[in-house]
Write a structure and sequence with these properties.
The protein is of the alpha+beta class. 23% of the residues lie in helices and 19% in strands. The protein has a 3-stranded antiparallel beta sheet with strand order 4-3-5. A two-stranded antiparallel ribbon has the order 1-2.
């Protein structure tokens, strides 16, 4: 059996991180540097920013800069990347605020307690 040992340097090397292509400037960047965007769904044409990168559905990636946003709007990239979604108000708001993803407060989710009573 062949077992390969991975070193800490290999794990921390940015070359091992996934790359994505910005729909605005079309340049590749690390996934951690780009915003993930998804279509809201349910018949809406709104584009949402997926801060946690966990929302269901097809995603598109955009550098968090006004120039890349302007290029994406000019090229009509949102509609192509997200099946007709064109409402970019949430994306524009996120980019113009300039908030840091790590500094954005995350709403606390309530803990779900089991109902069977056998876990006591």
């Amino acid at each position: 059996m062949n077992v390969r040992t991975i070193t800490v340097a290999e794990v921390l090397d940015p070359g091992n991180q996934p790359e994505r292509t910005c729909i605005g400037c079309r340049k590749k960047g690390l996934r951690s540097e780009l915003l993930r965007l998804v279509a809201e769904g349910s018949g809406s044409s709104a584009v949402l920013v997926d801060e946690r990168r966990r929302m269901a559905g097809r995603g598109a990636w955009l550098h968090p800069s006004e120039s890349c946003l302007a290029l994406a709007v000019k090229r009509r990239a949102f509609g192509r990347a997200l099946n007709g979604a064109t409402g970019t108000a949430a994306v524009e708001r996120r980019i113009t605020q300039g908030t840091n993803v790590a500094a954005a407060p995350v709403a606390a989710t309530p803990t779900v307690q089991p109902e069977s009573g056998s876990e006591i």
